[in-house]
UniProtKB/TrEMBL annotation:
<dbReference type="InterPro" id="IPR042213">
    <property type="entry name" value="NBD_C_sf"/>
</dbReference>
<dbReference type="InterPro" id="IPR037051">
    <property type="entry name" value="4-carb_acid_sugar_kinase_N_sf"/>
</dbReference>
<keyword id="KW-0418">Kinase</keyword>
<keyword id="KW-0067">ATP-binding</keyword>
<feature type="domain" description="Four-carbon acid sugar kinase N-terminal">
    <location>
        <begin position="5"/>
        <end position="229"/>
    </location>
</feature>
<dbReference type="Pfam" id="PF17042">
    <property type="entry name" value="NBD_C"/>
</dbReference>
<comment type="function">
    <text>Catalyzes the ATP-dependent phosphorylation of 3-oxo-tetronate to 3-oxo-tetronate 4-phosphate.</text>
</comment>
<feature type="domain" description="Four-carbon acid sugar kinase nucleotide binding">
    <location>
        <begin position="260"/>
        <end position="418"/>
    </location>
</feature>
<comment type="similarity">
    <text>Belongs to the four-carbon acid sugar kinase family.</text>
</comment>
<keyword id="KW-0547">Nucleotide-binding</keyword>
<dbReference type="InterPro" id="IPR031475">
    <property type="entry name" value="NBD_C"/>
</dbReference>
<keyword id="KW-0119">Carbohydrate metabolism</keyword>
<dbReference type="InterPro" id="IPR010737">
    <property type="entry name" value="4-carb_acid_sugar_kinase_N"/>
</dbReference>
<dbReference type="Pfam" id="PF07005">
    <property type="entry name" value="SBD_N"/>
</dbReference>
<dbReference type="GO" id="GO:0016301">
    <property type="term" value="F:kinase activity"/>
</dbReference>
<dbReference type="InterPro" id="IPR050007">
    <property type="entry name" value="OtnK"/>
</dbReference>
<keyword id="KW-0808">Transferase</keyword>
Length: 426
């Protein structure tokens, strides 16, 4: 069956967030890790989300991977491809939102690309091109302290222009409120003026429904789960979607086995969730300096977890406050420390799976990417939602056998997320 909607996600947690939104809004969806091997049996679905790990790599590498994924999705019938970015517009002045958006648009024959990270359900809104995170301008939100891509400008037209070759325009709220025809007319006018991408305002889900309907008439869009909601609802309204939420029942079958949580996210939400988890389960706080010094800290963590895990879930966390992260980065460099810690947490996750863990929660996009890659999991069915943006995932074709995972975006989930997740993963 040809797919209706294709998506390329720039990280794995973002991919599961989008897959959750598409499922909830009527599209049977599967999440793949990269372009799947032709031998992998995937269920018949309306939408495929190809997860890539390209948010923080060099722009040319990101463009190359995304272009190949676009080609694969078009080959499976996708009429529209959504480039799934973070709802907090995580990027640097070098990319990768601008370069990838322009490359995907070019591959699809042009047209001005509609871009919006709005995701009202998690407090991300865009007004006059400015992104607000839970009511705070992006540059005043906790994203100003992100370990890999600190965000210092809330004006997305400016942020996107700094990393794009073409001009970047705005579709303001007044136009969005006027409905799909007004948005389409504005997009056409921007195209005639040679503008390659347009940041669209959106405050409420109804704005995203308008934007989704218009985006569907174009080959490519760029956005977060909010735009996914708009696209999914437009497809469902058109009567073309097969069946709402297919896969969820299968995804809920219990897997048993041991349970663990591995955290590498340093977001304010994850730090709060770790403090709360400490009240009900053993939590090991890794020493980042020791992690960078060699493998002893990893071995000690595995042995600590091994002694406790048969009696209940354990948490292993590299996560630290912005001050601790800054000190480490000042000594070892931002990328080097990030990568070394991702590699360490991936090793810990895979060693825990080797010791019988079958229910695994990972906090942080880059951290999840490294762990899922290390486990060589090829794809996921989408299960029930734990918190907005975070579903239970069930592995497809996993060399370790069936597992349930939750890949938590750094800023998502309530304070009790970890216990809530494990309660739903049986
Ligand atoms: N103590 C620490 N000091 C410095 N860097 C750290 C530390 N702990 C984790 N890191 C690194 O910080 C980065 C966190 O990024 P990650 O994407 O995993 O989380 P996040 O940004 O909160 O999540 P998301 O991308 O889903 O919003 C990773 O590269 C991780 O290795
Ligand atoms: O859009 C979001 O905020 C998340 O899905 C994400 O991409 C965080 O990594």
């Amino acid at each position: 069956m040809p797919i209706l909607l294709g998506s390329i996600a720039d990280d794995y947690t973002g991919a599961s967030d989008l897959a959750n939104t598409l499922t909830k809004n009527g599209l049977a969806t599967v999440q793949t890790i990269g372009i799947p091997d032709p031998s992998l049996a995937l269920p018949d679905v309306d939408a495929v989300v190809v997860s890539l790990k390209i948010r923080s790599v060099a722009a040319d590498e990101a463009v190359d991977a995304a272009t190949k994924a676009e080609e694969w999705l078009r080959g499976r019938g996708a009429g529209h491809v959504l480039y799934k970015i973070c709802s907090t517009f995580d990027c640097t002045d070098q990319g990768n939102i601008g370069p990838v958006t322009e490359a995907l648009c070019q591959a699809a024959g042009g047209a001005t690309v509609l871009v919006t990270p709005a995701f009202p359900e998690t407090g991300r809104t865009v007004y006059l091109g400015h992104l607000f995170v839970a009511g705070q301008p992006l540059n005043e939100s906790p994203l100003k302290d992100h370990p890999l891509n600190p965000m210092h400008d809330a004006n997305l037209v400016r942020v996107m222009a700094r990393q794009s070759r073409g001009a970047v325009g705005l579709i303001d709220l007044a136009t969005v409120t006027a409905g799909p025809s007004a948005v389409k007319a504005r997009l056409d006018a921007l195209r005639a003026a040679g503008v390659s991408a347009a940041i669209a305002d959106a405050i409420f889900e109804r704005d995203l429904e308008t934007l989704g309907e218009v985006a569907l008439q174009t080959p490519v869009s760029t956005g977060a789960s909010g735009l996914g909601l708009g696209l999914a609802r437009a497809l469902a309204r058109s009567g073309r979607a097969s069946s709402a939420g297919a896969g969820t029942t299968d995804a809920m079958r219990p897997v048993g086995g041991l349970a663990a949580i591995v955290a590498g996210s340093c977001s304010a939400a994850t730090l709060r969730q770790l403090d709360i988890a400490e009240q009900s389960m053993p939590v090991l706080r890794l020493d980042p300096e020791k992690l960078l010094a060699g493998s002893d800290e990893i071995a000690a963590a595995i042995s600590w977890a091994g002694e406790r895990i048969s009696t209940g879930p354990v948490v292993v966390a590299a996560s630290a406050s912005p001050e601790v992260v800054s000190r480490l980065q000042a000594r070892h460099g931002r990328e080097a420390s990030g990568h070394a810690i991702e590699s360490a947490t991936a090793t810990i996750a895979s060693e825990l799976v080797a010791r019988g863990v079958r229910r695994l929660v990972v906090a942080g996009g880059e951290t999840s990417g490294a762990a899922v890659d290390r486990l060589a999991i090829p794809a996921f069915l989408i299960g029930p939602e734990i918190a907005p943006g975070v579903p239970v995932l069930r592995t497809i074709g996993n060399p370790q056998g069936d597992m349930l995972l939750a890949l938590k975006s750094g800023n998502f989930g309530g304070d009790d997320f970890f216990t809530a997740a494990l309660a739903m993963m049986r």
